[in-house]
Design brief:
Radius of gyration: 16 Å
Order of helices and strands: HEEH
Shape: elongated
Distance between the termini: 16 Å
Structural class: mainly alpha
Number of helices: 2
Number of domains: 1
Strand order of the largest sheet: 1-2
Strand content: 5-15%
Largest sheet: 2 strands, antiparallel
Length: 74
């Protein structure tokens, strides 16, 4: 149980560090967020459906990479 918590914390920390590095290195890296086809932006409604799908796919890929790194370390 404790190793699963440690692995999860490692993944979350790695993803946060990666996203932080991207934002520090390239401040406009996420300027596309909310402007993709399929995102609904009106005066009263903000629903970035496509942008959230892209973010979800990216985080899933990062999670897969960090879990593969954990398996290599063990």
């Amino acid at each position: 149980m404790a190793s699963r918590i440690g692995a999860t914390l490692f993944q979350l920390g790695g993803m946060a560090a990666t996203i932080g590095f991207i934002l520090m290195r390239w401040p406009g890296a996420f300027s596309w967020f909310g402007k993709l086809p399929g995102d609904i932006m009106t005066e009263h409604v903000i629903a970035p459906f496509t942008s959230m799908l892209v973010i979800s796919a990216g985080l899933s890929a990062l999670s897969w990479v960090f879990s593969a790194l954990i398996r290599l370390i063990r």
